[in-house]
Design goal:
The complex is a heterodimer of chains A (about 120) and B (about 110). By secondary structure, chain A is mainly β. Chain A has strands at about 5, 10-15, 20-25, 30-35, 45-50, 55, 65-70, 75-80, 90-95, 105, 110-115. In chain A, about 0% of the residues lie in helices and about 50% in strands. The chains are: A mainly beta (about 120), B mainly beta (about 110).
Chain lengths: ~120, ~110
């Protein structure tokens, strides 16, 4: 069990560019979550998958954001036409089905800076 | 008013002190109550969670839930400088996957 991994750890991009982040969950976990965290705030839920199905999306997830989990393993989060307000830490978490969503394990995050 | 309120601190204590961290909430449907520790520029780390009311102890950490007052606490005994971090409370109710709502976190500094 190597834990949740995220790539890249840091990303600096210019406004208007597209960016894609990757998350690899703990191998036996079939639920995967994406969150966004800004300085001084707690994580805010964006979306979650059970296996390959995207089951819920937050109102925070604008049309510029899209997430996939094509084979029920790793997931990608893409942001199109980035804006300065997208600058944040993007966190991925995973959990087993059957346990409460309380027991989520987070990755180290991807820090996005939009200039 | 946010669903989960948490004082951002910072809370500064001497090494060895008992630390009390707290959150209040407004949604009476919350059933699971979690505490995460987050070091600077790292992802949150789950410390413990409780279901409904009561206490739960794990080593130097004790979590308490008072649903009648909508108030939860995390106590840290014999605090160490390595406990210096931001502590996030989170709560969830059944919505298919118990997606948690987080507080903003309390910054704790334990000085030697």
């Amino acid at each position: 069990d190597t834990g949740v991994s995220q790539d890249p750890r840091h990303k600096i991009t210019k406004r208007g560019q597209n960016v894609t982040f990757r998350c690899d969950p703990i191998s036996e976990h079939n639920r995967l979550y994406w969150y966004r965290q800004t300085l001084g705030q707690g994580p805010e839920f964006l979306t979650y998958f059970q296996n390959e199905a995207q089951l819920e999306k937050s109102r925070l997830l604008s049309d510029r954001f899209s997430a996939e989990r094509p084979k029920g393993s790793f997931s990608t989060l893409e942001i199109q036409r980035t804006e300065q307000g997208d600058s944040a830490m993007y966190l991925c978490a995973s959990s087993k089905k059957g346990l409460a969503g309380a027991e989520q394990y987070f990755g180290p995050g991807t820090r996005l800076t939009v200039t | 008013q946010k669903e989960v309120e948490q004082d951002p601190g910072p809370l500064s204590v001497p090494e060895g002190a008992i630390v009390s961290l707290n959150c209040t909430y407004s949604n009476s449907a919350f059933q699971y109550f979690m505490w995460y520790r987050q070091y600077s520029r790292k992802g949150p780390e789950l410390l413990m969670y409780t279901y409904s009311s009561g206490n739960k102890e794990d080593g130097r950490f004790t979590a308490q839930v008072d649903k009648s007052s909508k108030y939860i606490s995390l106590f840290i005994r014999d605090s160490q400088p390595s406990d210096s971090a931001t502590y996030l409370c989170a709560m969830s109710s059944f919505r298919g996957s118990y997606i948690p709502t987080f507080g903003r976190g309390t910054s704790l500094i334990v000085h030697p």
